[in-house]
Here is the input.
Amino acid sequence: MSNQTAGHIRISSPLLLNAWAVTAAFGTYFCMYMYRKPFTAAAYSSDGWENWDQKAILVASQVVGYMLSKIVGIRIVSEVSRPRRAALLMCLILVSHVALLLFAVVPSPWHVLCIFLNGLPLGIVFGLVLGFLEGRRMTEALTAGLCASFILAGGVSKTVGQRVLQYTQSQWNWSLGESERWMPFLAGLIFLLPIAIFIWMLQQIPPPDALDEAARSKREPMRREDRLRVIKTYSTGLGSIAVVYLLVTVMRSLRDDFAPEILHGLGATVKPDAYASIDFWVALIVMLVNGASVLIQDNRKALMVSLGVCGAGFLLTLAVIGGRSLVPVEPHLMMIFIGAGLYLPYVAVHTTIFERLIAWTRDRANLGFLMYLADALGYCGYVFLMLAKNFIPKGQGDQAIAMTQLFFWICVVGSVLSLGLICFARYSFGRMKPNEGISLEPKP
Here is the structure.
């Protein structure tokens, strides 16, 4: 990578430049989660929602907004130019924070619409951050650091949310209802200055140099005809990976959004710091395994190895759930193993599969476009599940146990289906010849 580019700070060492890049990306997306996830730490069991799961409705409402932004982001992320990314990032964060303020003050049930507005801008953030990292020889390591942010932030955001709840009730004498409604806005307020600093750091990262482009292909904004051609050319393999991504998005989102209920269903007594501790180990495992893909220089081989990593993750998930009756595992440790099993394939799609497919074929494409195709489908599935959850008979037993059983059942079915689809995708990509894609140069 070049260490001197017009408009950017000068960092003489490639190692320091990579450290700067991964810190900026990690920090930006970590802070973004503090505008999206802290509200899931609350139970939202207020009066007036006896026949509905208010938390599931709120989660679904936010995810609907998040999903719509993923669909819109297919075009925005693939077309946005580098100089506009940082300003757009900060605007999206501010809009989501204003929506959290409305969530606190707007009366029920209209606060559900506010959490929808909160999710609407946030879905585009990942693609904009990813645009600063793709197309480099160290992309997998950098993107693994970026993905570690949302694995770790999922737990930390719940810890932050619970701490804010405890503080507002004990120090400000707020009722539980008041604390639950204001907590998301207050949590976001804490991270407003840090995210502004990290976004500024992102803007200072120089573009890939000539060696990066030789190893990974040049990444440019895509035109409409580029997007249509890529979908048509790789429809079979991309379709298989997209369905796998849908399934794993549903599984890992259930684990993240309902971690308190799942742990309670497993018999654990959960402290606020437990979520961050669990997800720290998940992030460490997943970051090391997927980041190691940078050691494989051959793009086709790296693609195939990454598909193998996906399969290993699903096998681990099946082994932990299927073997829990034979070998009892402590609940927190089980959540670590299941989290690692689900995040290995989820992060592999972000870090390696699409990145190396573009690098191998040398096609005119970018990572953000392919990721947002998969993301849009993945969150459609999760929204459907959240809405359907309200129509599943609740029964008479412990609802946390029922949630845990539903989660395990979905993980088993999803993992089995995903293993078959991964084999099919491996076969499809394996039949391709090097540089099979048609690289189109920009029109004069």
